[in-house]
Design brief:
By secondary structure, this protein is an alpha+beta fold. The protein has one domain (about 35-325). It has one helix and 16 strands. It has one helix spanning about 15-65; strands at about 80, 110-115, 125, 130, 140-145, 160, 165-170, 185-195, 210-215, 220-230, 230-240, 250-255, 260-265, 270, 275-285, 315-325. Strand 11 (about 230-240) and strand 12 (about 250-255) form a beta hairpin. The longest helix is centred in the first third of the chain and has 54 residues, at about 15-65.
């Protein structure tokens, strides 16, 4: 009689060790792929955030600069009555907020003006509830224009009434004498001063692009300070000017001192009658937080300033754009 054996076949110790080794290698490979993919995602996300900040800040500045010297039906600032003139910053005693200096709102002859590598407005950077320091070695500039779309008459607001050949500033909500509602339009006066603050109100410890804007405060013209884009570390601007009145840019100058004549600091001279035709804008934008493994190996030189190589681990990009002032030609 034959007896059947119930032996159970299985893996030998060698086979088991080989299988475990192969499985371990596969798991290690999968973990490495996941880790690399995760790291690539984080890097791409960081790059995208910095690029988005730069794009938003540049779009905001461009929209304002492009329409500089738009006064509604004409683009002739010297034809605007009631504007600031030499020695008389407010000839018609309009309710101009003078916190940022006499003529800050009414000096419409200077449609674009600024300060090279500094902030010199008498109004302190930031808000009263959030005072900040202006970022060192960063330009600041002011844009003056009117709203593109006609606005309703509003008592207490600084407005401008324009025809094809003339304009007048007023604030009483009544169409000025000599202007007919049929052949003239009413527009709100817009004034924006851009600068970089060393600290952000939204994200503490981060530099940010801010601007002081003409606005209505408690029923009268006032100045509000707005945070635009945290992460902007430096702003530079150069103005393309037409000296010989041929409607082409003859040279680029840094923003200089105030006045109806353009001042070229590099040549230490005034350029009477020069018109600003274009503006070159540079922005240096950094990430919100530091990143492990980031090492800046190149320096940054926006405009006329050399910022050198940053000694930290923040991600940065530098962007620039030349903006045509649509209303520069007369």
């Amino acid at each position: 009689m034959r007896t059947l054996s119930n032996k159970q076949a299985g893996l030998t110790m060698v086979e088991l060790m080989v299988a475990l080794a192969i499985g371990s290698f596969l798991m290690i490979g999968a973990i490495q792929i996941y880790s690399q993919s995760r790291q690539a995602f984080v890097v791409n996300e960081s790059i995208a955030r910095v690029q988005e900040t730069a794009q938003f800040a540049m779009d905001t500045i461009e929209a304002d600069l492009r329409m500089a010297s738009n006064w509604g039906r004409n683009s002739r600032p010297l034809a605007v009555e009631g504007r600031s003139i030499a020695g008389t910053p407010n000839p018609n005693a309009l309710p101009e907020p003078n916190g940022c200096g006499d003529g800050w709102a009414l000096n419409v002859a200077m449609t674009v003006e600024g300060v090279n590598n500094g902030y010199t407005l008498p109004c302190a950077p930031g808000r009263v509830a959030f005072p900040v320091a202006a970022q060192a070695n960063s330009d600041s500039f002011t844009v003056r224009r009117a709203t593109v779309v006609p606005a309703p008459l509003e008592a207490g607001r600084l407005q401008i009434q324009t025809t094809r050949i003339q304009g007048r500033l007023f604030a009483d909500g009544i169409v000025p004498a000599g202007f007919s509602p049929v052949d003239s339009t009413t527009h709100n006066l817009l004034v924006n001063s851009y600068y970089v603050a060393a600290d952000s109100e939204l994200i503490p410890g981060v530099p940010t692009l801010r601007r002081k804007s003409l606005s209505m405060v408690a029923g009268a013209p006032g100045i509000v300070d707005q945070e635009i884009a945290p992460g902007v570390e430096n702003l530079q601007i150069q103005l393309g000017i037409d000296v010989d009145e041929d409607n082409t840019v003859d040279r680029y100058v840094n923003p200089g001192v105030l006045g109806e004549a353009i001042y070229d600091p590099s040549a230490a001279e005034f350029i009477p009658g020069a018109r600003v035709m274009t503006a070159r804008v540079w922005l240096l934008v950094r990430g919100i937080t530091q990143e492990i493994g980031i090492q800046q190996v190149r320096g940054f030189q926006p405009g006329d300033i050399n910022l050198g190589v940053p000694n930290d681990t923040f991600r940065r990009i530098q962007v620039s754009k030349t903006i045509l002032l649509r209303n520069a030609r007369t």
